[in-house]
Amino acid sequence: MRAMKPAALVGSLTMMVGVALASAGVPARASTDRPLDPFWAGRPSYTEQTLAMGGDGVFPNYRIPALAVAPGGDLLTSYDGRPTGIDAPGPNSILQRRSTDGGRTWQPQTAVHAGQASAPISGFSDPSYVVDRTTGTIFNFHVRSADVGLMGSHPGVDPDDRGVLHAEVSSSTDEGRTWQHRTITADITPDLTVRSRFAASGQGIQLRHGQYAGRLLQQFTIVTASGDFQAVTIFSDDHGQTWQSGRPVGSRMDENKVVELSDGRVMLNSRDSGRSGYRKVAISSDGGASYGPVSVDEELPDPANNGSIIRAFPDAPAGSREAKVLLFSNAASQTERAHGTVRASCDDGASWPIAREFRAGAMAYSTLATLPDGKVGLAYEPGHNGIVFATFNLAWIKGMCTGIEPAQQLTIERGSRAASSIRLTNQWGPVQKIGAVRVEAPQGWTVSVGQVGKLLPGRSTTLPLDVQVPASGKGGSYRLPVVVTDRSGRTATGSVTVVVPRIPSEVPGRIEVTGGTLTNPRSTYRVGDRLDFRYRVSNLSDAPTTVTPQGNLRGLDPAVDAQNCRWRGLAAGAQYTCSSAHHVVTQEDLDRGSFTPITTWTSVSGEDTTVVEHRAEAVSLG
């Protein structure tokens, strides 16, 4: 291919972006003599509707959304229908709904593969789509279970072994209307050191560029003989006729997704079963067959939950600035499944300066897909019993592509100050007219940062930064948010890390427990009534810690109950809510006239252990 001159290349990008905007309902400007702002142009738009909600008379529980655009343009969403409300080995069904008008209306739900509640029980859970744009075949990966779930599975590949949690893929050659099913446990996990496996729900990808163009990728999590979780890419180079496993990556991984970067590399983005409070990331240079070192992305907070990552412009040419734009969705919290948020990166995921919350309350799994009209589809769980579908355009996110890079991490003693700098880069364009740059800090701190009037496309500027910590400041590691706002109100965010050295009393593992509040009070009580309690646990130190509670309540200790309030790897400065703690009223309680919840919370961080005893207010039962 003949190399373009720079001016011709700019014109080519402008034309391509103009077409993309026209398809999204955004008028494209014909003039190419000035920078365009296609990514954030147009009137913001966000709409949503409920596709399934437990208690509708069909299934009591719906979970785990998947989303795909069929080759013909129809939109497909898939999810679990759970008759018993539990994950595998429940007799669950993989369900599907179809939209022929871009998600405005939806046909009734059908079954991709229906479970069986009578003996011999079988179930199917956790769907994920992969679409082959070359052949038109649609794949739906999911779990096939019989007698065991994820952790109860034993090593094995015999498809008739009911003690193995199996991998199944259903395929369709008629736009997802009919399906054929195939068990691929032996194909993808022939190594009998693998105890269990499951497809990461949501959506896999087909590579578009480079040496591995056309390859189909679906992400899996495997459980090793020791019980560790690893991520692995399952791929096919023959359009899904055969599937093979890449090299497992990482430790304490979990549900994970991949996205093709602008240079053809593949980025893996994973939930962390070690509960660091952030997402884990690794890069592949061989089409997902293997990955480099795993790192923690501290710009992506996560409470150990499933998320989604896609290219905003999936058909953009390799190496173009459009190809570098990624979208990410998850519950943007380190401690609870809430604050559903969409983020955008303009530099292949190196930074995430743009974010907008779409749901403030409970929000669990989510998945994204770019739609044929240029909008973005979002399927998510509003809690853990329903499926909501939303569409939004990129203007709705209301951010700007401004890279925010601090010069270094600062270490500041109490009662002193330190100087540094922050580098701002206009990653996209057009000219960014900056209204303000501010750095948010704890109460009592003093922070000053330089200001800038405007940033030209592709240009950078360095602003001075001065931080003073008061003598009364607490030791720990602090991420100070940096917020850049332009004159129209769009924002970009980043952070600068400040470490205040601890004093001996501020040891790792130190926690605070509050609450023990009764959440379902009654006027009168009888034997068998359930008392539900809520606690709030805060990590007061600057190191991750594992918290294990015990006491005279159920729903506390993982050695006793499936639902429990243990938290592995609670991040420094993070909090979480324990809402599973409960007590069933006994005759002895009624005779006494009250019940007092008494709990002990043990926090372990390295060699440091802290024990907190908590006695909540007595509940009067008289």
TrEMBL record:
Which biological process terms from the Gene Ontology are attached to this UniProt entry?
A: ganglioside catabolic process; oligosaccharide catabolic process
Could you tell me one molecular function GO term of this UniProt entry?
exo-alpha-sialidase activity
Q: Where is the Sialidase domain?
A: 94-377
What this protein catalyses is: Hydrolysis of alpha-(2->3)-, alpha-(2->6)-, alpha-(2->8)- glycosidic linkages of terminal sialic acid residues in oligosaccharides, glycoproteins, glycolipids, colominic acid and synthetic substrates
SUPFAM superfamilies in alphabetical order: Sialidases
Signal peptide start and end residues: 1-22
EC number, as in UniProt: 3.2.1.18
Give every Alpha-galactosidase NEW3 domain span: 413-484
Gene3D superfamilies in UniProt? 2.120.10.10, Immunoglobulins (2.60.40.10)
For this UniProt record, the keywords arranged alphabetically read as follows: Signal
Q: Which Pfam families match?
A: BNR_2, NPCBM_assoc
Q: Which GO terms describe its cellular component?
A: cytoplasm; membrane
Q: Which family does it belong to?
A: Belongs to the glycosyl hydrolase 33 family.
Name of this chain's protein? exo-alpha-sialidase
Q: Which organism is it from?
A: Luteococcus japonicus
